[in-house]
Amino acid sequence: MSIVSQARLRLLAGAALIALPAVAHAAPGPAADAAAAPAEAPADTDADANGGLQDVVVTATKRETNLQKTPIAISVVDPQVMKDRHVQSLLDLADGGVPSLRIATFEARQSALTVGIRGIVPFDANQTARDQGVGVYIDGVYLGRQQGLNAALFDVERIEVLRGPQGTLFGRNTEGGAVSIVTRAPTGEFGGRVSAGVGNYGGYNGELHLNLPAIANISFKIDGLVQHQDALVKNPLPGNYGWGYYNRYGGRITALWKPVDGLSVELSYDRARDENTPFYSQLVNYNPKNLPVATLAQINANGGKLPAGMIAPLSPLVKVSGDKRMDVADIGVPQQLSVDKTDGFAATIRYKASPDIELRSITAWRGVTTDQWDNSGGAHRTVFLPNAKFSRYSLSWLHQRQFSQELQAVGSLPNLDYAAGLYYFTERAQEEAATPSTNQWNADGTGYTVLSPVVTGPITSGNQGWAPDNWFRQRGSWARARSYAAFAQATYTPEGLDMFHLTVGGRYTKDKRYGRLYLISNVATPYEFRFDKSRFDPMVTLAVDAAQGVNLYAKYSTGYRAGGANDRSSDFGAFGPESVKAYEVGAKMDLLDHRVRLNLAGYIMDRSGTQIDFDHVDTSPFLPGTSIPNPNFNLHTEDTKNAPGNSKIRGVEAELTVKPVDGLTMGASYAYTYTHIPLTPNPQDAGKLAPVFVVFTPRNAASGFVDYEMPVGGGDTKVRLHLDANYASSMYSFQNEATKTQPSFVVNGRIALTDIQLNDHGQKFTLAVWSRNLFNETHIYRRSSANAAVLGDYANFNPPRTFGVEGSVNF
């Protein structure tokens, strides 16, 4: 701990206590996830009787347990939190409601998400032969690609954010933690919920969740939804979409069969479609290095190329936005919808072999297909030269299919609870990409034309369209992966010393990956990649019930992310795995008759082999010093290297929920995260050592909320008021750029009239008004200075204020 000393760490822990932090004000639901034990965790009847905070049930240990008695740092987002914050997809959690969880778009695209926890945040896993550092699961099924993660969420029971390495029970690629999405299971009784709403920017949404009565011990559940929002930034080119648009819809059907006591078979199939456009990339400054600006006369006298040491003039049509979010783009460009199509089938079997053991099988097929159309930059990422082409259209087609099989045995012996299992995962992913220019300047930058998506003559880098048959494919690759694992974990409570709990676990994993980069610049290539390694990840936790409602723990664990290859490199360059060792201490406390809940955690993580991306987009239309067209114009190249030595991650987290009086709940949460990566050789600069950074990880992040419920009239009808505020300090958004984003402070609010009795059959109606980014705060969440010497910085802004009204009926 060279920079963050032990004394400073203790000081931060004390400051966190004073700050009264907290997060999860979740209520447990009746359904367990695919890996949950059938029996519910024991509820605390005293909490209910005294009007205190309700227990929170989690399944992080493959069995249902009380959050406060589970020695893991966990935050829970429940359905009420999702309603209060109007969370419709994972990207809606990007405002920081769980401070240690960081979610951002890859590039500016809604079609692929970057998910990070505790400073383990991948920069570019949006490829065929790379993995994430945080695992995302739906009902126990791992999702292998970043694409499709922003699909609409189906009837979520809760989202568990498991912080820290989860390598023992959840496996590889969970070195930062895991996001486990648990959905509601069929009930076997007729009932459900329907909701609909409208909002600004042409927004509307609707959901149907229907449970059917059980027939022959088979229960069915049907879920369907639609979510829509028009563009946040308008496109002046007629007939084309603006930026920040989405249209999501999908459905799922689930069947639960219980032929005999102790045996259940759950089958589900889901299918969804997410149509979206990226967020707009704005030019926030021009010529920040104060270079001499070339005149048109100087450029023309130099054969149409830029004189050395000078910067190109700015077109009079291009606006430099500074810190202001644009409503209408200054340049109209072709922008089509990116389309993510996801689908999956899962079969979960649970068999209670005896009162002390349950056997489980989780079998799943899933897939995603993405057609990416990203023209978010317009003229804001390309230099102006007379009659030059501009506006890079980033096109990609990706198809991925995966299969997984997990077998579990979860049970108890005298003084011992255990979980053990076997796991198999395989996937195949293929991608092809192109980067045509869609627009062309006139001679002096006062006008432009839109090029044709179809070209005549030979297709080259300088003569290509964006119709699929007219792509000049910059790259094409495919990769196959297989992973095998065996795991076990057991918790021992000594007889007569039932305040002590020792948990020991381990997971053995063998990973194999093979792939080919078969196309570069429209030319067939022979580059191949192979990866074959095994790994053992241990975990040891000592937990102590120090007093009534006070649980302490100390934990050692490891995790890793598999090696891979970068398909944006010139030769499918391989890189090795990265691994992390973590040491954590924590306290979980329920105090004052369950009116105060305080959870604290401090951790030290050392990561070796940190995977670092060095990326570059060539924005020069001509070869340096010539008037010859640049064959690499618009080409995105990227090399990934493992940083030498250990990267350091240190942190303190605190979460507090307080219920001082009936009807009023308040809370706050805080996360301090320190990161440092050693200097790493930059392959794009002759191997020169360069500083590198962890992306989308603020040093300080905090969130707070206030909920107030007040009965009105008779019956169960209440007025519910919700307000939350979320802060994050500035952070890096590119691994090899020292440029930082802006700090953020986003407030969300909701007012609802709940549980209005409609009839004598138990049907109830809720009417709510909501707003995200209530005060229309504006901040840059992604910023690059890569073009500072030729144009200026470009950046992406957070969404503006959105608001709407929504009604729902429970029946």
In short:
This protein is mostly beta strands and 811 residues long. Helix content is 4%, strand content 51%.
Describe the structure.
This protein has 811 residues and is mainly β. 4% of the residues lie in helices and 51% in strands. The chain is built from 4 helices and 43 strands. The strands form 9 sheets. It has a 22-stranded antiparallel barrel. Mean pLDDT is 90; it is low at 1-40.
Distance between the termini: 56 Å
Q: Largest sheet at a glance?
A: 22 strands, antiparallel, barrel
Mean pLDDT across all amino acids: 90
The total strand number stands at 43
Work out the radius of gyration.
27 Å
Low confidence ranges: 1-40
The general outline is: globular
Q: Quickly give the structural class.
A: mainly beta
Give the % helix.
under 10%
**Strand residue content:** over 45%
Quickly list its features:
single chain, 811 residues, mainly beta, 22-stranded antiparallel β-barrel, 5-stranded mixed β-sheet, 4% helix, globular, disordered N terminus
Task: Describe the secondary-structure layout.
Layout: H1 6-18, H2 45-49, E1 57-58, E2 65-66, E3 74-77, H3 79-85, E4 101-106, E5 109-117, E6 134-138, E7 141-142, E8 156-163, E9 177-183, E10 191-199, E11 204-215, E12 218-229, E13 246-257, E14 263-276, E15 281-283, H4 296-301, E16 338-354, E17 357-374, E18 389-392, E19 394-413, E20 416-434, E21 437-441, E22 448-450, E23 473-492, E24 500-520, E25 523-547, E26 550-561, E27 564-565, E28 574-575, E29 578-591, E30 596-608, E31 611-617, E32 636-642, E33 646-661, E34 664-676, E35 680-682, E36 688-690, E37 700-711, E38 718-728, E39 744-757, E40 764-772, E41 780-784, E42 794-797, E43 802-810
Parallel strand pairs: 6-9
Antiparallel strand pairs: 1-2, 3-8, 4-5, 6-7, 8-9, 10-11, 10-43, 11-12, 12-13, 13-14, 14-16, 15-42, 16-17, 17-19, 18-21, 19-20, 20-23, 21-22, 23-24, 24-25, 25-26, 26-29, 27-28, 29-30, 30-33, 31-32, 33-34, 34-37, 35-36, 37-38, 38-39, 39-40, 40-43, 41-42
